[in-house]
Amino acid sequence: MKKIKILAYSFLLMSMYSCNSSAQTKKVTTVAKPNKGIAVFAEGCFWCSEHVFEAVVGVGEVVSGYTAGTTKNPTYEQVGSNRTGHAEAVLVYYDPKIVSFKELVNVFFASQDPTTPNQQGPDRGSAYRSIAFYKNENEKRIIENKIKELTINKVFSKPIVTEVLPVSDFYAAEEYHQDYVKHHPDNSYVENVSIPRYKLFKKTYKGKLKSKS
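Request: output the structure for the sequence above.
Response:
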């Protein structure tokens, strides 16, 4: 469960658990269709990440989910217990003719603090750790080069702790998590964490964003 101090949000979250106790997750393929791209990133709350990546020109659908763990078809509650090894993550479908994997890596590092182990903002636990996933050696090299660049230029005051891992099984999160910021703009967590985080990203990111974002 996201550890925030807003009582109203906590009450809402508990209500969602009770209403969705039978919700199921499902494994999603991480193999892209011809001439299409798929990337996987974990950078804290997937509500925030989904909202960020969907705003990038060249990105189509973004799916919130769980990856890098051992439990099959994990639920939100199980992942939140930090016992399954999974991290909240997003599966990003993109057009490589418009936006490159390298640029998505730029988005990834511009939209989070990669120096906080097992934490992103108010959310703490291994489910919120920073991970950049790769499908091949070229993507791995792109990620590692970006980390070196950020380190040399001292963009962050503390060492980057982002994990660099091969893409593994990805499970789409329960339906009520998908496009959560869009569907619940008045939610306390969205108002106090997701939106401010997105606005900060917009101020610092130099790439192209969709006009309506």
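The helical segments are 7-19, 46-54, 76-80, 101-110, 137-152, 180-183, 188-204.
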